[in-house]
Amino acid sequence: MSTIEVTDLSKSYGDVQALDDVSFTIPDGEFVVLLGQSGAGKSTLLRCLNGITRPTEGSISIDGAEVLGPRNDVAMIFQQHYILEQISAYSNALTGALGRTSFLRSLLGRYGDGDKREALRALDTVGLLDEANQRAGNMSGGQQQRVGIARALVQEPSLLLADEPVASLDPASAETVMRYIRDAAAERDLTTIASLHQVNIAREFGERFIGMKDGEIVFDGYREEFTVDVIDEIYGDIETEAIREERTESSADERPAQSGTQAHEY
Ligand SMILES: Nc1ncnc2c1ncn2[C@@H]1O[C@H](COP(=O)(O)OP(=O)(O)OP(=O)(O)O)[C@@H](O)[C@H]1O
Protein backbone atom coordinates (compact mmCIF):
# COMPACT_ATOMS: atom_id res chain seq x y z
CA MET A 1 0.00 0.00 0.00
CA SER A 2 1.65 3.19 -1.20
CA THR A 3 1.08 6.62 -2.63
CA ILE A 4 2.75 7.16 -6.00
CA GLU A 5 3.69 10.57 -7.29
CA VAL A 6 4.89 10.97 -10.88
CA THR A 7 6.05 14.48 -11.72
CA ASP A 8 6.89 15.86 -15.19
CA LEU A 9 8.29 12.50 -16.29
CA SER A 10 9.94 12.32 -19.71
CA LYS A 11 12.00 9.60 -21.33
CA SER A 12 13.61 9.71 -24.73
CA TYR A 13 15.51 7.05 -26.60
CA GLY A 14 17.53 9.09 -29.08
CA ASP A 15 14.93 10.83 -31.24
CA VAL A 16 12.03 8.78 -29.85
CA GLN A 17 10.07 10.52 -27.11
CA ALA A 18 8.66 7.51 -25.26
CA LEU A 19 7.28 9.61 -22.35
CA ASP A 20 6.48 13.28 -22.64
CA ASP A 21 5.90 15.27 -19.47
CA VAL A 22 3.75 12.71 -17.65
CA SER A 23 2.35 13.60 -14.21
CA PHE A 24 -0.17 11.89 -11.94
CA THR A 25 -0.71 10.89 -8.34
CA ILE A 26 -2.10 7.53 -7.23
CA PRO A 27 -3.41 7.27 -3.69
CA ASP A 28 -2.92 4.23 -1.45
CA GLY A 29 -4.53 1.02 -2.61
CA GLU A 30 -5.93 2.21 -5.95
CA PHE A 31 -6.23 -0.23 -8.90
CA VAL A 32 -5.18 1.63 -12.04
CA VAL A 33 -5.35 0.36 -15.61
CA LEU A 34 -2.94 1.82 -18.13
CA LEU A 35 -4.19 1.85 -21.72
CA GLY A 36 -2.80 2.86 -25.08
CA GLN A 37 -1.87 1.63 -28.52
CA SER A 38 1.36 -0.22 -29.08
CA GLY A 39 4.22 2.25 -28.68
CA ALA A 40 2.20 4.69 -26.53
CA GLY A 41 4.76 4.45 -23.72
CA LYS A 42 3.06 2.09 -21.23
CA SER A 43 6.00 -0.28 -20.75
CA THR A 44 8.44 2.62 -20.49
CA LEU A 45 6.30 4.18 -17.76
CA LEU A 46 6.11 0.88 -15.84
CA ARG A 47 9.87 0.35 -16.20
CA CYS A 48 10.51 3.85 -14.84
CA LEU A 49 8.14 3.10 -11.95
CA ASN A 50 10.06 0.00 -10.94
CA GLY A 51 13.40 1.70 -11.36
CA ILE A 52 14.73 -0.43 -14.24
CA THR A 53 14.69 2.57 -16.60
CA ARG A 54 16.00 5.98 -15.62
CA PRO A 55 13.84 8.86 -16.84
CA THR A 56 15.43 11.60 -18.92
CA GLU A 57 13.59 14.23 -16.87
CA GLY A 58 11.19 14.38 -13.96
CA SER A 59 10.78 12.17 -10.93
CA ILE A 60 8.81 9.35 -9.33
CA SER A 61 8.32 8.97 -5.62
CA ILE A 62 6.78 6.16 -3.58
CA ASP A 63 5.56 7.33 -0.20
CA GLY A 64 7.76 10.41 -0.57
CA ALA A 65 10.98 8.50 -1.40
CA GLU A 66 12.32 9.09 -4.89
CA VAL A 67 12.76 6.02 -7.11
CA LEU A 68 16.44 5.94 -8.07
CA GLY A 69 16.76 2.28 -9.05
CA PRO A 70 15.11 -1.14 -8.62
CA ARG A 71 13.44 -1.62 -5.23
CA ASN A 72 12.40 -4.73 -3.36
CA ASP A 73 9.05 -3.23 -2.44
CA VAL A 74 8.00 -2.85 -6.09
CA ALA A 75 6.95 -6.11 -7.75
CA MET A 76 6.31 -6.62 -11.43
CA ILE A 77 4.24 -9.19 -13.32
CA PHE A 78 5.12 -9.62 -16.97
CA GLN A 79 3.35 -10.98 -20.05
CA GLN A 80 6.02 -13.69 -20.06
CA HIS A 81 5.97 -14.96 -16.49
CA TYR A 82 9.61 -16.14 -16.40
CA ILE A 83 8.86 -18.88 -13.90
CA LEU A 84 11.22 -21.83 -13.44
CA GLU A 85 9.54 -24.79 -15.13
CA GLN A 86 11.61 -27.53 -13.48
CA ILE A 87 10.57 -26.69 -9.92
CA SER A 88 7.21 -26.67 -8.12
CA ALA A 89 4.71 -23.84 -7.96
CA TYR A 90 5.59 -23.48 -4.26
CA SER A 91 9.35 -23.20 -4.90
CA ASN A 92 8.68 -20.65 -7.62
CA ALA A 93 6.51 -18.59 -5.27
CA LEU A 94 9.25 -18.73 -2.63
CA THR A 95 11.74 -17.09 -4.99
CA GLY A 96 9.74 -13.90 -4.39
CA ALA A 97 11.52 -13.80 -1.01
CA LEU A 98 15.00 -13.76 -2.60
CA GLY A 99 15.37 -10.01 -2.05
CA ARG A 100 15.32 -10.52 1.73
CA THR A 101 17.21 -13.85 1.84
CA SER A 102 20.99 -14.18 1.98
CA PHE A 103 22.66 -15.67 -1.09
CA LEU A 104 23.85 -18.75 0.82
CA ARG A 105 20.43 -19.47 2.35
CA SER A 106 18.70 -19.10 -1.00
CA LEU A 107 21.32 -21.36 -2.60
CA LEU A 108 20.55 -24.02 0.01
CA GLY A 109 16.83 -23.43 -0.29
CA ARG A 110 16.68 -22.39 3.37
CA TYR A 111 13.98 -19.80 3.48
CA GLY A 112 12.53 -18.55 6.76
CA ASP A 113 9.26 -19.94 8.15
CA GLY A 114 7.61 -16.57 7.57
CA ASP A 115 8.55 -16.69 3.88
CA LYS A 116 7.26 -20.27 3.57
CA ARG A 117 3.95 -19.23 5.14
CA GLU A 118 3.81 -16.23 2.79
CA ALA A 119 4.39 -18.50 -0.24
CA LEU A 120 1.48 -20.75 0.81
CA ARG A 121 -0.73 -17.74 1.50
CA ALA A 122 0.11 -16.29 -1.94
CA LEU A 123 -0.65 -19.61 -3.66
CA ASP A 124 -3.95 -19.69 -1.78
CA THR A 125 -4.71 -16.14 -2.97
CA VAL A 126 -4.25 -17.19 -6.60
CA GLY A 127 -6.24 -20.42 -6.12
CA LEU A 128 -3.27 -22.79 -6.43
CA LEU A 129 -2.80 -24.09 -2.90
CA ASP A 130 -3.82 -27.61 -3.93
CA GLU A 131 -1.32 -27.48 -6.80
CA ALA A 132 1.56 -26.16 -4.65
CA ASN A 133 3.73 -29.24 -5.26
CA GLN A 134 2.99 -29.51 -8.95
CA ARG A 135 5.89 -28.96 -11.33
CA ALA A 136 5.38 -25.49 -12.83
CA GLY A 137 6.27 -26.72 -16.32
CA ASN A 138 3.26 -29.05 -16.26
CA MET A 139 0.79 -26.26 -15.55
CA SER A 140 -1.37 -24.35 -18.05
CA GLY A 141 -0.38 -20.87 -19.25
CA GLY A 142 -2.97 -19.26 -16.97
CA GLN A 143 -1.81 -21.28 -13.95
CA GLN A 144 1.81 -20.39 -14.67
CA GLN A 145 0.85 -16.73 -14.79
CA ARG A 146 -0.88 -17.18 -11.40
CA VAL A 147 2.36 -18.67 -10.04
CA GLY A 148 4.07 -15.50 -11.29
CA ILE A 149 1.49 -13.44 -9.38
CA ALA A 150 2.10 -15.52 -6.23
CA ARG A 151 5.85 -14.91 -6.56
CA ALA A 152 5.21 -11.16 -6.87
CA LEU A 153 3.02 -11.27 -3.72
CA VAL A 154 5.70 -13.13 -1.73
CA GLN A 155 7.96 -10.16 -2.45
CA GLU A 156 5.55 -8.31 -0.10
CA PRO A 157 5.48 -5.27 -2.35
CA SER A 158 3.92 -1.94 -1.55
CA LEU A 159 3.42 -1.33 -5.28
CA LEU A 160 2.39 -4.01 -7.80
CA LEU A 161 3.04 -3.38 -11.48
CA ALA A 162 1.75 -5.60 -14.28
CA ASP A 163 2.86 -5.18 -17.88
CA GLU A 164 0.28 -6.77 -20.20
CA PRO A 165 -0.20 -9.65 -17.73
CA VAL A 166 -2.90 -11.43 -19.73
CA ALA A 167 -1.89 -10.58 -23.29
CA SER A 168 -0.83 -14.12 -24.19
CA LEU A 169 -3.83 -15.89 -22.62
CA ASP A 170 -7.15 -16.96 -24.13
CA PRO A 171 -10.12 -14.74 -23.10
CA ALA A 172 -11.40 -17.06 -20.34
CA SER A 173 -7.95 -17.51 -18.75
CA ALA A 174 -7.31 -13.78 -19.11
CA GLU A 175 -10.46 -13.02 -17.09
CA THR A 176 -9.51 -15.55 -14.44
CA VAL A 177 -5.98 -14.21 -14.07
CA MET A 178 -7.20 -10.59 -13.94
CA ARG A 179 -9.70 -11.55 -11.24
CA TYR A 180 -6.91 -13.06 -9.14
CA ILE A 181 -4.73 -9.96 -9.60
CA ARG A 182 -7.57 -7.67 -8.59
CA ASP A 183 -8.59 -9.81 -5.61
CA ALA A 184 -4.97 -10.12 -4.44
CA ALA A 185 -4.62 -6.33 -4.64
CA ALA A 186 -7.88 -5.79 -2.75
CA GLU A 187 -7.01 -8.38 -0.09
CA ARG A 188 -3.65 -6.71 0.59
CA ASP A 189 -4.78 -3.13 -0.09
CA LEU A 190 -2.02 -3.06 -2.68
CA THR A 191 -1.58 -0.06 -4.99
CA THR A 192 -1.59 -1.61 -8.47
CA ILE A 193 -0.91 -0.36 -12.00
CA ALA A 194 -1.63 -2.81 -14.82
CA SER A 195 -1.22 -2.12 -18.52
CA LEU A 196 -3.78 -3.89 -20.67
CA HIS A 197 -4.65 -3.79 -24.32
CA GLN A 198 -8.03 -5.52 -24.12
CA VAL A 199 -10.58 -2.74 -23.58
CA ASN A 200 -13.32 -5.10 -22.34
CA ILE A 201 -11.06 -6.55 -19.68
CA ALA A 202 -9.85 -3.08 -18.74
CA ARG A 203 -13.46 -1.91 -18.30
CA GLU A 204 -14.34 -4.92 -16.20
CA PHE A 205 -11.43 -4.75 -13.79
CA GLY A 206 -10.20 -1.14 -13.75
CA GLU A 207 -11.10 1.33 -11.06
CA ARG A 208 -9.16 4.25 -12.50
CA PHE A 209 -7.96 4.48 -16.10
CA ILE A 210 -4.92 6.29 -17.49
CA GLY A 211 -4.90 6.51 -21.29
CA MET A 212 -1.66 7.20 -23.14
CA LYS A 213 -0.93 8.26 -26.68
CA ASP A 214 2.50 9.11 -28.13
CA GLY A 215 4.05 9.27 -24.67
CA GLU A 216 1.45 11.66 -23.25
CA ILE A 217 -1.51 11.13 -20.94
CA VAL A 218 -4.70 11.78 -22.90
CA PHE A 219 -7.12 10.55 -20.23
CA ASP A 220 -7.02 10.10 -16.50
CA GLY A 221 -10.29 9.31 -14.81
CA TYR A 222 -12.64 6.84 -13.18
CA ARG A 223 -15.10 4.29 -14.49
CA GLU A 224 -18.04 6.64 -15.07
CA GLU A 225 -15.90 8.97 -17.21
CA PHE A 226 -14.33 6.14 -19.23
CA THR A 227 -16.74 6.39 -22.17
CA VAL A 228 -16.63 5.19 -25.78
CA ASP A 229 -15.45 8.67 -26.80
CA VAL A 230 -12.52 8.37 -24.41
CA ILE A 231 -11.64 4.97 -25.87
CA ASP A 232 -11.74 6.59 -29.33
CA GLU A 233 -9.37 9.27 -28.13
CA ILE A 234 -6.92 6.67 -26.85
CA TYR A 235 -7.12 4.16 -29.69
CA GLY A 236 -8.53 6.05 -32.65
CA ASP A 237 -11.74 4.60 -34.07
CA ILE A 238 -10.43 1.05 -34.42
CA GLU A 239 -11.68 -0.39 -31.12
CA THR A 240 -15.04 1.33 -30.97
CA GLU A 241 -16.26 1.29 -34.60
CA ALA A 242 -18.01 -2.06 -34.15
CA ILE A 243 -19.67 -0.92 -30.95
CA ARG A 244 -21.00 2.26 -32.53
CA GLU A 245 -22.29 0.27 -35.53
CA GLU A 246 -24.12 -2.11 -33.22
CA ARG A 247 -25.69 0.79 -31.39
CA THR A 248 -26.89 2.42 -34.62
CA GLU A 249 -28.30 -0.88 -35.87
CA SER A 250 -30.11 -1.59 -32.63
CA SER A 251 -31.80 1.83 -32.48
CA ALA A 252 -32.85 1.56 -36.16
CA ASP A 253 -34.14 -1.89 -35.37
CA GLU A 254 -36.32 -0.57 -32.51
CA ARG A 255 -35.38 -3.74 -30.62
CA PRO A 256 -32.72 -2.43 -28.26
CA ALA A 257 -33.30 -5.13 -25.65
CA GLN A 258 -32.25 -7.79 -28.16
CA SER A 259 -29.25 -5.98 -29.56
CA GLY A 260 -25.67 -7.29 -29.27
CA THR A 261 -24.55 -7.73 -25.72
CA GLN A 262 -21.11 -6.14 -26.28
CA ALA A 263 -22.68 -2.71 -26.75
CA HIS A 264 -24.03 -2.85 -23.18
CA GLU A 265 -20.54 -3.38 -21.86
CA TYR A 266 -19.58 0.20 -22.67
N1 LIG B 1 14.97 0.41 -25.19
C1 LIG B 1 14.45 1.16 -26.16
N2 LIG B 1 15.23 1.70 -27.11
C2 LIG B 1 14.71 2.47 -28.07
N3 LIG B 1 13.40 2.78 -28.19
C3 LIG B 1 12.58 2.27 -27.28
C4 LIG B 1 13.05 1.43 -26.21
N4 LIG B 1 11.98 1.07 -25.45
C5 LIG B 1 10.90 1.65 -26.00
N5 LIG B 1 11.24 2.35 -27.10
C6 LIG B 1 10.34 3.15 -27.94
O1 LIG B 1 9.60 3.99 -27.09
C7 LIG B 1 8.24 4.07 -27.52
C8 LIG B 1 7.31 3.59 -26.39
O2 LIG B 1 7.51 2.19 -26.23
P1 LIG B 1 6.80 1.33 -25.09
O3 LIG B 1 7.33 -0.06 -25.20
O4 LIG B 1 6.93 2.04 -23.81
O5 LIG B 1 5.27 1.40 -25.56
P2 LIG B 1 4.06 0.48 -25.15
O6 LIG B 1 2.88 1.36 -25.04
O7 LIG B 1 4.42 -0.32 -23.96
O8 LIG B 1 3.93 -0.47 -26.40
P3 LIG B 1 3.60 -2.05 -26.43
O9 LIG B 1 2.17 -2.19 -25.99
O10 LIG B 1 3.82 -2.41 -27.87
O11 LIG B 1 4.58 -2.71 -25.52
C9 LIG B 1 8.13 3.23 -28.78
O12 LIG B 1 8.30 4.08 -29.90
C10 LIG B 1 9.31 2.28 -28.67
O13 LIG B 1 9.78 1.89 -29.94
Give helix and strand order, one letter per element, not per position.
EEEHEEEHHHHEHEHEEHHH
Beta-strand percent range: 15-25%
Given helix and strand content, the structural type is alpha/beta
How would you describe the shape?
A: globular
What is the CATH third-level topology name of the largest domain?
A: Rossmann fold
CATH superfamily of the largest domain: P-loop containing nucleotide triphosphate hydrolases
Instruction: Give me the Rg, rounded.
Output: 20 Å
What does this structure look like?
GO terms for molecular function: ABC-type phosphonate transporter activity; ATP binding; ATP hydrolysis activity. It comes from Halogeometricum rufum. Residues 4-239 form the ABC transporter domain. The protein is of the alpha/beta class. The protein has two domains: 1-73 and 159-235, Rossmann fold (3-Layer(aba) Sandwich), CATH 3.40.50; 83-156, no CATH class. Helices cover 36% and strands 24% of the residues. The strands form two sheets. It has a six-stranded mixed β-sheet with strand order 6-7-8-3-9-10, sandwiched between helices. A four-stranded antiparallel β-sheet has the order 2-1-4-5, covered by helices on one side. The chain is globular and about 50 Å long. The chain starts with a strand and ends with a helix. It binds adenosine-5'-triphosphate. Residues 13, 16, 18, 36, 38-44 line the site of adenosine-5'-triphosphate (ATP).
